Amino acid sequence: MFKNALKYYKFGKYHAEKMKFEYGKIIGSMNLTKNDELSVVDIGSGSGRLLHEVLIPLLPKNIKEIVATDIDEKMIDFSRSVNEHPKVIFNVLDIGGEKIPLHFQNRFDLLFSSYCFQYVRDLGRAFSNCEKLLKPNGELALIFQCKTNALYSTYKKMSRIDEWKLYMKEYANFVPCFSDPDPDSELRNITENAGLTLINYNFDPEFYITIPRKQLLGIYQSLDNIKLAAVPKDQQEDYNRDFVRSIAEEIDLRFSNGRIIDEPINFQVPTVIIHAKKNK
Ligand SMILES: C[S@@+](CC[C@H](N)C(=O)[O-])C[C@H]1O[C@@H](n2cnc3c(N)ncnc32)[C@H](O)[C@@H]1O
């Protein structure tokens, strides 16, 4: 039942050091009260593994609650089953969705998100939703991939295959976020329009992870919700075959006698790191 979430739990720790470094730097520069208890939200927490192993140890002690959220109900159910922390509660939430539930609005002092926003189709709306979640002067730290996105570029390729184009049509014209020649202006506009003030940001185009190729494929397969949500069971083997073929170029898979050669790859993950706050 939790196959995908378990796969992500096992393999999805490739960016732990990057998260620790970037979150550590941002948290160190945050204007944190020692008197009141803080409410924290994590967006796209996946299996919850790095929330527990990386983010929580960096947070100050005066935490009232940590709400871990994800669009994928199965990830949330899995997280509940493996992570036990007295202050963490899990909830399904689509950060790119039309509505933020009222009980979450104006609730959080701090918002974190790692490697989720590259999967949100409307970044402007996602930033506005972050603004809604935060209290006035609340701060957010976002880390996500920009300029490339192997999963959605694979969907774009698959939208040209007759059997799958029905499922992939919203990806036919997909362009990764911040691909424009002037990503700085794009970021400034999105934050400003959402009612947020940029405190600091950095585009890190050189960031890469060293990872065995099969593991990298496993991560993308665990994040592929189209297969689970839409493709009928009797077509899933054919889908898998075409998914692997289509993603092969994106993640430089190499084959010998039809099998993936499992050498490690230095896989580039251009990343943007954003520290901002909600206006008063
Ligand atoms: C690459 S994983 C990152 C998980 C975790 N934050 C980490 O750093 O390991 C991306 C997660 O974002 C979730 N996600 C994708 N789109 C989302 C959305 N619109 N709202 C909330 N979560 C989303 C996915 O379900 C997945 O669990």
Tally of distinct domains:
1
Briefly, what CATH class?
Alpha Beta
Bound molecules: S-adenosylmethionine
Termini separation (Å)? 44 Å
> What's the CATH superfamily, by name?
Vaccinia Virus protein VP39
Shape: globular
Give the biggest sheet: 7 strands, mixed
Structural class: alpha/beta
Q: Give the C-alpha Rg.
A: 19 Å
Helical proportion, percent range = 25-40%
Tally of individual helices: 11
- Provide the spatial order of strands within the biggest beta sheet: 3-2-1-4-5-11-6
Average pLDDT confidence is 93
SSE series: HHEHEHEEHEHHHEEHHHEEEE
Residue share in β-strands: 15-25%
Which oligomeric form is depicted?
single chain
Number of strands: 11
Could you please say which CATH topology applies here?
Answer: Rossmann fold
Q: Low-confidence parts, pLDDT < 50 over ≥5 residues?
A: none
Characterization of the model:
It is a single chain. The termini are far apart. The model has no long low-confidence stretch (mean pLDDT 93). The chain is an alpha/beta fold. The chain is globular, with a radius of gyration of 19 Å. The strands form three sheets. Strands 3-2-1-4-5-11-6 form a seven-stranded mixed sheet. It has a two-stranded antiparallel ribbon with strand order 7-10. The chain has one domain: Rossmann fold, CATH 3.40.50.150. Helix content is 39%, strand content 25%. β4 (108-114), α5 (123-133) and β5 (134-145) form a beta-alpha-beta unit. Bound molecules: S-adenosylmethionine.
